Amino acid sequence: MSVTLKSPPSSFLSSSLPKSRLRFANGSSSSTLLFKFNRSFPVLGASSGSSSSVDTGLSTELDAVSTFSEIVPDTVIFDDFEKFPPTAATVSSSLLLGILSLPDTIFRNAVDMALADSTCSPLDNPELRLSCFVNKALVNVGGDLAKLVPGRVSTEVDARLAYDTHGIIRRVHDLLRLYDEIAVPPERLLFKIPSTWQGIEASRLLESEGIQTHLTFVYSFAQAAAAAQAGASVIQIFVGRVRDWARNHSGDPEIEAAIQRGEDPGLALVTKAYNYIHKYGHKSKLMAAAVRNKQDIFSLLGVDYIIAPLKVLQSLKESITSPDEKYSYVRRLSPQSAARYDFTAEELTKWDQLSLASAMGPASVELLAAGLDGYVNQAKRVEELLDKIWPPPNV
Question: Domain-by-domain residue ranges, the chain?
Fold first, then answer.
């Protein structure tokens, strides 16, 4: 995914942030900043009604699909607020890597201030000192993003803690304390946690404290259902990654069952997870990521959030609808259709560590491991770069 950060108008930035430009590329969704369209694109919101088609007066395909789901782009351009006014954001190791790749970026001051922090610098243990710097950098950048966006800022939790429930909770509490020091309230925050069993259990405990969590790397129904039972605020499923695995592998029962029904396995997973959440009254919002084309979006209409590539959104915006066009814009996912969906007794289990491990097929196991490896590598690269530039010249 290619991401471009440019300086927005000065009214959107604190005075301490210099105007500059940052460009970097990577394949991780963790660097995504979430935007809701306005003006050039319509304000997008999930529809709660049961209507199956939209008003034929709507002029573009983007108008049509945005009446059913909140559509967010997978690319951000800060200086084009007319086209992409931001509502929420994600701060991650991937984003820190982008900030560190150039000496003059709009968030570089936030990182330099982290390296000058008086609580981190005196630590004798190099690993603890670097971890302290990373936490401060994430929060400083997250604080600046909170000034730019009216919605929530999702902060990535170190993937090396993915199998340590109490480690995740301690890290989230540390991040919350740092956010409190810069006056960012908890209701503005999400914490992005991998959907291992330990991550799901950490989500349950954090949500019980009123701390909002965002569970990612969901590649199986068991993970999605366990995350919903935990009360996660947001559950993120990567549609295209499931499809890619299915094209190149075999032997996953859940995927093969979907294919035998004539369904795309990634789309089928989102549909099943949505129906489970709504049929049984879970509070979680469902986010479909890694969609690859317009047909994916058409097939997911009604899901809470769809993250889509900019080229797909531009195509939707440029495609004019007409009353006699062949494609009918139909809400595919709704609470009403969820109520009619039948689940097996095995799918309605109260998920625990053993049942989750037994139900996760090779696709979810392999994709989760690959995602964690990517996040861990990014975190290590951030620490290596911070170690090279510490102490900064003014310290």
Answer: 61-389
